[in-house]
Amino acid sequence: MTTRRTRLIAALDTRDPAEATRWANAVSSHVDAIKLGLEFAYAAGFETVTKVAQGRDLFLDLKLHDIPNTVGAAVGSLNRLSPAMLTIHASGGSAMVAAARQACDDSFPEGKRPLLLAVTVLTSLDDAALAETGVPGGARAQVLRLAELALRNGADGLVCSAHELTALRKEFGERPVFVTPGIRPRGADAGDQKRIMTPTEARQAGADWIVVGRPITKAADPAAAAAAIAAELIAP
Ligand SMILES: O=c1ccn([C@@H]2O[C@H](COP(=O)(O)O)[C@@H](O)[C@H]2O)c(=O)[nH]1
């Protein structure tokens, strides 16, 4: 029986700094961190990322994926943003993950190192879509394969779907941090997500963090939507 608390990250996916700021202010008291990622950073710039994130834990979801030298240097360049969590793609390979971890250790001040999270298989891929990329055998097997690679090379945790959590906990225990997007409250539109679970199911499966975007940001009342999801994360 685990006593883990599952925390909530609101994904603020927009190009508009005013909208991101409005959402951040609305949901802040209900969520544990905010996510800013590719859409926002490319449109608004990294200095604006810092402004919106100010005073909040930042899940900086840039999903870095390049040769080890480039990824290491990129991680080193991100220290001015003070992220609490940073993402890379596990499929970049052992040396790339190790380079990212080394850069985290070298470039961030003592006690300020972000959690390095390796994306395994995107939650928008089902087994058939994954097979199209040349990976037969299903998402769960590939997640476990990439998890081993990433954790052995210094990742603190993984981004995966909640569907893989039971197998991951069995294989890797309680220590790694598991972050699960692809979360949909019961009845919510899945959109492009394929491997989805509800907040309650993800909590019961052992998620450390869930990431929720559109069910919050597209709601008529984002604060109420975030509050309802946060309520699901409090174990009865
Ligand atoms: O495998 C992954 C990795 C990251 N994401 C990100 O999470 C949010 C989910 O947003 P929703 O609107 O709740 O679908 C989004 O920012 C993705 O970039 C993911 O979905 N899956």
UniProtKB/TrEMBL annotation:
Pathway this chain belongs to: Pyrimidine metabolism; UMP biosynthesis via de novo pathway; UMP from orotate: step 2/2
Subunit record text: Homodimer.
Stretches assigned to the Orotidine 5'-phosphate decarboxylase domain: 7-229
Organism: Acetobacter estunensis
GO biological process: 'de novo' pyrimidine nucleobase biosynthetic process; 'de novo' UMP biosynthetic process
Keyword terms of this UniProt record: Decarboxylase, Lyase, Pyrimidine biosynthesis
Taxonomic superkingdom: Bacteria
Protein name per Swiss-Prot or TrEMBL: Orotidine 5'-phosphate decarboxylase
Pfam families given in the database record: OMPdecase
Key word DNA-binding present: no
Reaction(s) catalysed (UniProt annotation): orotidine 5'-phosphate + H(+) = UMP + CO2
E.C. designation(s): 4.1.1.23
Residues holding substrate: 13, 35, 61-70, 123, 184, 193, 213-214
Molecular function via GO: orotidine-5'-phosphate decarboxylase activity
NCBIfam families attached to this UniProt entry: PRK00230.1 (NF001273), pyrF (TIGR01740)
Active-site residues, record numbering mapped to chain: D61 (for ompdecase activity), K63 (proton donor), K63 (for ompdecase activity), D66 (for ompdecase activity)
Job of this protein: Catalyzes the decarboxylation of orotidine 5'-monophosphate (OMP) to uridine 5'-monophosphate (UMP).
Gene Ontology CC terms, in alphabetical order: cytosol
Family as reported in the entry's similarity comment: Belongs to the OMP decarboxylase family. Type 1 subfamily.
